[in-house]
Amino acid sequence: MAQQDDLTEFSSEDTYRLLVEGVTDYAIYMLNPDGRVANWNRGAQRAKGYVEREVIGKHFSMFYTERDRIEGLPQRGLDTALREGRFEAQGWRVRKDGSLFWAHVVIDPIYRKDGKLLGYAKITRDCTEQRRIEEARRDTENRFRLLVEGITDYAIYMLTPDGTVANWNAGAQRAKGYVESEIVGKHFSLFYADEDRAAGLPRKNLDIALREGKFEAEGWRFRKDGSRFWAHVVIDPIYRASGELLGFAKITRDRTEQLESREKIIYLARHDAMTGLPNRLQFLERLDEAMATLRHGEQEIAVISIDLDGFKEINDAFGHAVGDQVLCELARRMKALSGEGELVARLGGDEFVAFKVFRQERALADFITRLYHALTTVLRLTGTDIAPGASLGVAMFPGDAEDRAQLLNNADLAMYRAKKNLGEKICFYEANMDEASRARRTMARDIWAALEHGQFFLNYQIQRAVDSAEITGYEVLLRWKHPVHGMVSPAVFIPIAEECGAIGAIGDWVLEHACREAARWGLQPRVAVNLSAMQLSNAALVEKVRSVLASSGLPASRLELEVTETAIIADRDRALHLLQQLKAMGVTIAMDDFGSGYSSLETLRSFPFDKIKLDRSFISELETSKQAKAFVRAILALGHSLNVSVLAEGVETEAQRAILQQEGCQEGQGFLFGRPATLESLAGQGVIEAPDLAARSA
Question: PAS domain: which residues (predicted)?
Fold first, then answer.
C-alpha cells in the first residue's frame, strides 16, 4: 500500500511541475493561445536572463530579434504548430541583456480533454556553442576545399570506388585541360594511353592503392587536346569512420619539365655540348661494348684518332666564333655519314675519334675515305670559305692491341705520325711507332735527369760585323752530353722537352748560366739568349730576367733576348706586353728566324725590335738565287727604314759575306765567323780572354 502511495505522489501534477521547473539545460514554459508566457522554469531564466515575475504575461515575441518580429516569425511558429502538430526550428534569440544566442526551439500545441486549445508547450535550448563548433568545422572544410580547388600546381580530385571522377580542382583543369563540367562523372582511365587502358593499368593502380595503402608512380598521361605530359601520380584510398571505402584521393603533378631537365642532364653527360656528338664517356662505353661482343675471327674493330690540321691558325685568323662553326660543321658531316657499327665522337678541342666494326677491309677503307672527305672538303661559311684539313691514325683490334687503352694509344701514335708527315695524312699503326714512343718517353725522363745532374752545357757562337772582324755579340746555344748516348742534338731533345714540359726549366737554366758566364768572362758587347714560347707565355718572365741580372751582375744592356714570331703568336698580346717590359729594362730584343714560319710585317709594326735575324735559308741560296738575293735586299731595306739592325744567319762563305756587305748588312753569324764552342775553347783560340787574364788587363 505504501508503494502505491509513492507512485501516486510521483505522478501528481505538483511533481511534474517541480520536475519541469528544476530543469536548467532547457528553457521549458507554457504559452497561452495568444502567445503570452504562462509560466517559467529555471532553464528559461538561465537561458534568457529573465526571472519569472519579469516575463509572465509578456508575449513570447520579446525573445525574437526586431527583424524577426517585423517579419511575423513568432506568430508563424504558433500557426505551424497548430497546423502540423509541432513547430521545430533554429534561430537567433535575444536575452534580457540584449545579447544573442542560437536557439533550438520546439513548440507543441496543448489541448484540453474536450479538444479546446489550452496553449503551447515551448522548449528552447541554447545551442550557441554547438553552432560555433559546427561553423568552425564547416569553415575548416571550406578553407580546405578552397585550398584544394585553388591549387594550380597539383591536380587534386576524388574518385568514387569504381574510379569515376567526383570533383575537380584548378590544378587538374590546368594540367589536363578539362573544366569540371566536362569531367565529373567520367572514368579517370580517359587520362591514360590506349595501350595502358587495354592493359587494365587504371584498375590495377586502384587495386595497388587498396592493397598497399598507396599507389605512387610516374608515367605518361594525356590532356584534353591529345598532348601528353609526364605525370607523378599518388592515389590514396579514403575510408569512412565505419571502415567503408568512400573512394580515392588522387594527386597528379606535371613533371614534364623535370623529366626534360633530367634527360638533358643525362644527354649532356654523354654528349659534347658544342657539337652534339658523343663525348669521351659515351665513346668508351660504346667501344667497350663493341669489343666485348666482337665475333673474333669474323670481325675487327678499327679506332681512328682524328686531329684537325691548322685549327689554331683558323682561330687566330678568323676568331673563335668561326672556329666553333668549323667544329660544328665538321661534326655534322661526320655524324651524317656514320652508319651501323660506326661511331664518331669529340674528345675536346680539335680532337675527334671514331671506331668501326667491320668484316672486310674495303668496308673500313670506305669509312675512312668518307671521314677524310668530310674533314677536308671546303667549308662555305658566312663571309668566308675555309679549307680544313685533318690527320688520321688507325689501329685495329685485336690485331694491334690487346685492350682498349692500348688500342687508343696506338691509334694516337699513328695519328701523330700522320701529323708530321705532310704527304700522308692517314697512317695505320705499326709496331715501330710504339718503340719510338717509348724512346721519346725515355728521353723525356733523361732530360729531367740531365737538369738535375748537370749534363747540359753552353756553347757560344760569335756574331761579327760583316765589314770588319769586330765581335758584335755571342749567341748562346744549348748542348747536352748524355752519359750513354753522348752528344744529343737540340733538334732531337728540344721538341721532346716542349712535349714533357721541361722546356721552361731548361730555359731558366740557360738564362741563369748565360748571364753568370757572360758577367764572369766579360763578354762584350752582349750575349744573346733564345726565349721559348712557354717562357713568353709566363707572366713571371720579367721578374725572372730582373732577378737573374741582379744576381749575376750582368748589365741589362749586355743581354739580348731572341724570340721567333712562332713563339709570339701563341698569345700575341701578352707576349708583346712582356717584351715591352723587358725592353724598358734596357734588354735588347731581336726577332729570330725572320722570313720563316709566321713572320709578318704586322709583328714588326706592333713592336720596336732592336734587331732582325735573317733566316739562314735565304743566305744559303744567296749566291745562286735571284729571288733569295732580292728578298735579302728587301729585308735590309726594311731594316734601314725602321732603323733596326739586321743580322744574317748561316754565313759560311766569303762570297756570301761579300754580297751581304755590298747590300748593306751590318752583322753576320755562321761558320765563316766561327763555329759554336765553349768559352774555354774560345779562350784557347785567342778569341776571348779567360776571366783571370781579363781581370789583370783591366
Answer: 12-85, 140-213
Amino acid, res. 6: D
Distance CA 236, CA 246 (A): 11
Contact 87, 81 (CB under 8 A): yes
- Measured distance CA(665)–CA(653) in Å, rounded: 15
Question: DSSP character for 216?
Answer: E
Vertex 679: Cα angle to 675 and 683 (nearest 5): 90
Residue matched to cell numbers 668484316: 359
Residue 104 belongs to a domain with what CATH number?
A: 3.30.450.20
**Cell representation of residue 447:** 732530360
pLDDT at 151 over 90: no
Asked if residue 501 belongs to a domain, the reply is: yes
The answer to whether residue 410 is domain-embedded is yes
Helices (H), 271-376: 280-292, 311-318, 320-337, 361-376
Structure pTM? Answer: 0.48
Do the beta carbons of residue 549 and residue 521 sit within 8 Å? Answer: no
Of 1 and 496, the one with more pLDDT: 496
Structural domain span for residue 381: 271-429
C-alpha cell, 22: 528544476
Strand, helix or coil for residue 121 = strand
CB 335 within 8 A of CB 277: yes
Lookup: cell for 508:
731558366
Cα–Cα distance between 275 and 327 in angstroms, integer?
7
User: In angstroms, what is the C-alpha Rg of the chain?
Assistant: 52
Question: CA 601, CA 604: separation in Å to the nearest integer?
Answer: 5
Of the ranges 274-278, 340-344, 466-470, 689-693, which one carries the lowest mean pLDDT score?
689-693
* Residue 461 to residue 322: CA distance in whole angstroms: 45
User: Can you tell me the distance from the alpha carbon of 218 to that of 233, in angstroms, rounded to the nearest whole number?
Assistant: 6
Q: Of 458, 563, 552, 474, nearest to 506 (Cα)?
A: 458
Query: Between these two residues, 674 and 21, which has the higher pLDDT value?
Result: 674
| Shared domain check, 578 and 516 | yes
Residue entry with cell 502538430: 85
Q: What digits encode the pLDDT tens for the residues 220-266?
A: 999 999 999 999 999 999 998 888 999 999 999 988 888 777 777 77
The CATH number linked to 372 is: 3.30.70.270
Domain check: are 301 and 423 in the same one? yes
